[in-house]
Amino acid sequence: MKKLTFAFIGMIFICSLSTTAFAAKKAGGTSTTKEDIDAYDYDSLVKKIKRVTQPHVDGDYLVFTARNNARSVGIAFDFEEYKTVHQFTLHKSYDYNSEVLDSWFYFIMKKPKKASQVSYRLVIDGLWTTDPNNERTVFDESEGILLSQLVIPNEDPAVTETLSSGITRFVCFEKTGQNIRIGGSFTNWDSWIYTMTEVSPGRYEIDIPLPQGTHYYSYYKGITAFIDSTNPLKGYSNDGKVVSRIEIE
User: Fold this and answer.
1) According to the model, what pLDDT value does residue 188 have?
2) What is the C-alpha separation between 193 and 213, in angstroms, rounded?
3) pLDDT (tens digit, 9 = 90+) per residue, 119-143?
4) Positive or negative CA dihedral for 67, 68, 73, 79?
5) Residues 126, 129, 135, 136: is their CA dihedral positive or negative?
6) Residue 33's pLDDT is what?
7) Exposed/middle/buried for 231, CB within 10 Å: 0-12, 13-18, 19+?
8) Is the pLDDT of residue 221 over 90?
9) Cα–Cα distance between 118 and 137 in angstroms, integer?
């Protein structure tokens, strides 16, 4: 009996060393945790979790769940090179008599920027494994291990930005069928030089080559001027009106 006990402890110790070694051999990368998420958003996301489900995307967040049949559940991601193991949180649901109805583990994080998918492994009671709630797996040839993978739909909204070609693409969302123009410091505030094109229903765009520096602009519908809702940068025109601002580096 003692030999079996010591053998079992030894196996746990070896597994723990393997887990540590796998995490330690990787380096770099960043992630977001509960502390990085707005408290209201976090609470709303937790309330939506009614049971253990496959990992999914909810707005700007990734949601992972696990059954409550282990002491601890962690997760490590490819974009962090598996350096950090993030711990799941245990959630319990109660009835009106404060009796536990059900319980599960969950982990919520922000979507990595410009990522089309994330690969990951779970760490359940110290053992590395794929996600039993995710049927999608990929094989990492460099490590010789199987990974779970979550595909992230491309839902990044179009925004005004300077492209790599040096062209600035201005984006405006309005009702379809409108005549939307743009004017700014680069047109001496003449709004009749550039008319935007409706590239899809309600989405207007125009590409303008702009030199380095700070530029101010507004969109126009008829004689009404309005700011760019896709660009958070603001400034003031010479007559004191609030306008949009863009910095070209």
Assistant:
1) 95
2) 21
3) 999 999 999 999 999 999 999 888 8
4) positive
5) positive
6) 54
7) middle
8) yes
9) 11
Measuring CA to CA, how many Å separate 38 from each of 32, 104, 115, 156, 190? 11, 22, 21, 19, 41
Check: CB of residue 183 under 8 Å from CB of residue 193: yes
pLDDT at 206 over 90: yes
Residue 111 has pLDDT above 90, yes or no: no
Other C-beta atoms within 10 Å of 125: how many?
Answer: 13
- Of 32-41, 107-116, 180-189, 229-238, which gets the smallest average pLDDT? 32-41
Could you report the per-residue pLDDT of 11-32, keeping only the tens digit for each?
333 334 333 333 333 333 344 5
Neighbours of 188 (CB within 10 A): 8
Full-model pTM: 0.52
Q: What is the pLDDT of residue 155?
A: 60
How many CA atoms within 13 Å lie on the side-chain side of 4?
A: 1
